[in-house]
């Protein structure tokens, strides 16, 4: 993760004022017109858990969505997941069957990134949390998307400024960090990079409210706000387990019953993915250079062993592949 540089002294700025740009008023007016246009056509790059959730939410709120992935199997699985989640809403009386069908009709799939972004107003990248992969995707998006298009990333920790530097439109690059599960969670963490314009930021904040989400604007520092606070807590829970202070269920129960958390930190780590937790902690550790962000050795070993949580069937808990019911993993049973 040391390939992700951070400038610890970044100063954020907004778009120059009309007065500053008075020498080229037409340029300023064109800029405003482009960024104030209504965003109707959306692309989501990456058909995994976050990508299909983001596509689901946009389509359900009336947007035309291209869901893009290099794997047709991943796209088929994503559309099946979206359909299943919509069926669940229908069964609970939260959605009419006609709305479900309309939602699905707004989602198209595409394995060619260049074609998938060619006429889009907003592209949201939701690929795996790999810095170099994200930069490569953004270079392709920048090359083939219309000049007015906003390029957003769903990254949970990687520098927006660093990603934007791979494009020729850093003013139109922004972080749009949805929470999992996307159709349920209200928060969208909107991250302003060094060059992100005021108009782009305000457009994305406004757009998020149209998705029935609550956007919160933050600046571009490692982990942003959500994971800068959450990941050290998860890491400390893992350290407590590693040192034998308490067992898996005991640690989770303390946080659920004592701190009113809906899910304990170890179960939450399994839900997020232990590989993702490790990746984010590495970004925090590299970005700030502080020992308190260093990932616990137990977490590192579990990821190396392929014990990634729910996605692999085992982490701190063992999960039934059909019901997702959990018991403490054999490694941690007392």
Gist?
The protein is α/β, with parallel strands linked by helices.
Number of domains: 2
- Sheet-strand content, in percent, reads 5-15%
Per DSSP E runs of 2 or more residues, the count of β-strands stands at 10
Q: Please tell me the overall pLDDT.
A: 91
CATH topology of the largest domain: Rossmann fold
Number of helical regions: 13
> What is the end-to-end distance?
35 Å
Order of helices and strands: HEHEHHEHEHEHEEHEHHHHHEE
Shape verdict: globular
Uncertain regions: pLDDT < 50 for 5+ in a row? 1-5, 7-36
* Full CATH superfamily name of the largest domain: NAD(P)-binding Rossmann-like Domain
Q: Helicity, in percent?
A: 40-55%
Q: Give, in spatial order, the strands making up the sheet with the most strands.
A: 3-2-1-4-5-6-7-8
Structural class by secondary-structure content: alpha/beta
Top CATH class of the largest domain: Alpha Beta
Largest sheet: 8 strands, mixed
Annotated CATH architecture of the largest domain = 3-Layer(aba) Sandwich
How would you explain this protein's 3D organization?
The protein has 334 residues and is α/β, with parallel strands linked by helices. It has 2 domains: 198 residues, NAD(P)-binding Rossmann-like Domain (Rossmann fold, 3-Layer(aba) Sandwich); 107 residues, Orthogonal Bundle (N-(1-d-carboxylethyl)-l-norvaline Dehydrogenase, domain 2). The chain has 13 helices and 10 strands. It has an 8-stranded mixed sheet, with helices on both faces. Strands 9-10 form a two-stranded antiparallel sheet. Helix 7 links the parallel strand 5 and strand 6. Helix 2 packs across helix 3, helix 9 packs across helix 11 and helix 9 crosses helix 12. The longest helix is centred in the first third of the chain and has 20 residues. The N terminus is likely disordered.
């Amino acid at each position: 993760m040391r390939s992700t540089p951070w400038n610890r002294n970044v100063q954020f700025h907004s778009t120059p004022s009309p007065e500053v740009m008075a020498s080229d008023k037409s340029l300023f007016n064109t800029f405003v017109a482009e960024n104030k246009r209504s965003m109707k056509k959306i692309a989501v790059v990456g058909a995994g858990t976050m990508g299909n959730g983001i596509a689901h939410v946009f389509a359900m709120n009336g947007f035309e969505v291209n869901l893009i992935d290099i794997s047709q199997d991943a796209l088929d699985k994503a559309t099946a997941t979206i359909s299943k989640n919509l069926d669940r809403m229908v069964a609970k009386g939260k959605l009419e069957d006609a709305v479900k069908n309309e939602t699905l009709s707004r989602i198209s799939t595409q394995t060619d990134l260049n074609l998938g972004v060619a006429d889009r107003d907003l592209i949201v990248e939701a690929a795996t949390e790999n810095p170099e992969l994200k930069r490569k995707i953004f270079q392709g998006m920048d090359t083939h998307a219309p000049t007015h298009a906003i390029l957003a990333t769903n990254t949970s920790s990687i520098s927006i400024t660093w990603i934007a530097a791979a494009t020729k439109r850093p003013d139109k690059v922004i972080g749009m960090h949805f929470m999992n599960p996307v159709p349920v969670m209200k928060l969208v963490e909107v991250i302003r990079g060094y060059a992100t314009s005021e108009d782009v930021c305000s457009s994305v904040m406004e757009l998020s409210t149209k998705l029935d989400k609550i956007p919160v604007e933050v600046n571009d520092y490692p982990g942003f706000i959500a994971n800068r606070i959450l990941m050290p807590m998860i890491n400390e829970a893992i350290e407590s387990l590693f040192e034998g202070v308490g067992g898996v269920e005991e640690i989770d129960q303390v946080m659920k019953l004592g701190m009113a958390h809906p899910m304990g930190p170890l179960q939450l780590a399994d839900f997020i993915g232990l590989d993702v937790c490790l990746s984010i902690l590495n970004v925090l550790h590299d970005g700030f250079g502080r020992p308190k962000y260093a990932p616990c050795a137990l977490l590192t070993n579990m990821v190396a062993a392929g014990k990634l949580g729910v996605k692999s069937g085992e982490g701190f808990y063992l999960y039934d592949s059909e019901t997702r019911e959990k018991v403490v993993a054999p490694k941690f049973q007392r």
